[in-house]
Design goal:
Distance between the termini: 44 Å
Pfam family, one: ATG22
CATH topology: Growth Hormone, Chain: A
GO molecular function: transmembrane transporter activity
Number of domains: 1
Number of helices: 17
CATH superfamily: MFS general substrate transporter like domains
Membrane topology: Multi-pass membrane protein
Protein name: MFS transporter
Helix content: over 70%
Main location: membrane
CATH architecture: Up-down Bundle
């Protein structure tokens, strides 16, 4: 198998750039900072957990509303990279703001987090769609998996620095509070994200596109409406998106709620950060393995294997009591998280028409984001009503079961779907 080309490598390297945001801001350090801020303001643990879930859901809703139209508009020549740069800039800017806003302002922190999430998710629409521009169909599983693997490795650098600063602060080795150290880790993450996005901007170009028209926004609406009217005609795409809606909801919810869940169980921040760090390290080679196995065996079977692992995670999470239990769950997540995300992206990319990749990845993103609304809200409401987050996590099992059943019904891949013809 030949080495990655410069565009392939530059594309995959963006995962290296933005994945630090996922672990530091979404999963690890910022959630702890937010929980501390909310607790100091007199907010109960279960209530702040619910607020965190609601914030994630609101951000997901906003980007889901924008995604299809933005994706359709970005299919016109020269638009894709402009949208990508805008959303990256939005995410980096508001991530930096999280580092400078006073710790006491928990509500402002939560609002800024929503904007960081919009920037992150918005940029990913166009990043994912660039996969068809940088590689061939037979290499998509490998390149997609390599991207996620680079993300797991790259994200550990700001994460290690953040953990080191926090631990040294706790031990009074450096003259910084834990809060300031956490804010410094978030600032480093913002800089890391911005700096390592440069190769993507420099070397990746839109190869497949729709020629520009005099009224691109009007044309985008027409094209989007035509696709929506005919979406059921794309049987494989339609069934896959339904399956993806359910199983990725569970995956995203486990990711976004992991740290606050551990905090509610009474696990200390040092143990949580260490578990998350090791999870990142273990995930990298296992994600690459998923990509290799998808090339050797049936890619649908590998996706179903990931779903089965998550079903067991939901069952095990219901009985979690100790740090050892949390380690077990973390390693199970590490074995499947990157693989199921990478293969979902490349499996979908092989089904869609390349010249309409942004439009179809807009649908892919809206499905993922609407799915991300249900899980956190479910966990949040359950946490408030019962005072026990475990009940909500266990209920996620139904999402994986439904997703797996629908995935089994997706027809074998043939030629990519053809986009509808419209008059402008």
């Amino acid at each position: 198998m030949k080495k990655m080309s410069v565009p392939e490598r530059s594309w995959a390297f963006y995962d290296w750039a933005n994945s630090a945001y996922s672990i530091v801001v979404v999963t690890a350090i910022f959630p702890l900072l937010f929980k501390s801020s909310a607790t100091n303001a007199g907010i109960a643990a279960s209530t702040s957990t619910a607020y965190w879930g609601y914030a994630n859901s609101l951000a997901a809703l906003l980007i889901a509303i924008l995604a299809p139209l933005l994706g359709t508009l970005a299919d016109f020549k020269g638009f894709k990279k402009r949208f990508f740069i805008f959303f990256v800039s939005l995410g980096v800017l508001f991530t930096m703001m999280l580092a400078v806003i006073p710790h006491e302002e928990w509500l402002i922190l939560l609002i800024c987090f929503i904007f960081t999430s919009i920037g992150f998710a918005g940029a990913n629409i166009f990043y994912d769609a660039f996969l068809v521009d940088v590689t061939s169909s037979d290499r998509m599983h490998r390149i997609s998996a390599n991207g996620f693997a680079l993300g797991y490795i790259g994200s550990t650098v700001p994460f290690i620095i953040g953990i080191a600063l926090i631990i040294l602060s706790q031990q009074a080795v450096i003259p910084l509070s834990v809060t300031v150290s956490s804010q410094a880790a978030i600032a480093i993450t913002a800089l890391w994200w911005g700096l390592f996005t440069i190769p993507m901007i420099k070397h990746v170009e839109q190869q497949y596109y729709v020629d520009r028209v005099p009224r691109p926004v009007t044309a985008s609406f027409k094209k989007l409406l035509t696709t929506i009217k005919n979406i059921k005609a794309y049987r494989a795409l339609f069934l896959f998106l339904l399956a993806y809606f359910f199983y990725i909801d569970g995956v995203n919810t486990v990711m976004t709620m992991a740290t606050v869940f551990g905090t509610d169980l009474g696990l200390d921040s040092t143990s949580l950060l260490l578990v998350l760090f090791i999870t990142q390290i273990v995930s990298a080679p296992l994600t690459i393995l998923f990509g290799r196995l998808a090339e050797r065996f049936n890619d649908k079977k590998m996706l179903l294997s990931g779903i089965l692992i998550y079903i067991f995670i939901c069952i095990y999470a219901y009985f979690i009591k100790t740090v050892v239990d949390f380690w077990v769950i973390a390693m199970m997540v590490a074995s499947a998280q990157g693989g199921i995300q990478a293969l979902s992206r490349s499996y979908y990319a092989k089904l869609i028409p390349k010249q309409s990749s942004n439009e179809f990845f807009g649908f892919y993103n809206i499905i993922g984001k609407f799915a991300a609304i249900l899980g956190p809200v479910l966990v949040g409401i359950t946490a408030q009503l019962t005072g026990n987050t475990s009940n909500g996590l266990f209920s996620l099992i139904i999402l994986f079961i439904i997703g797996g059943i629908l995935l089994l019904r997706v027809p074998d891949q043939g030629k990519p779907a053809s986009p509808p013809t419209i008059s402008v």
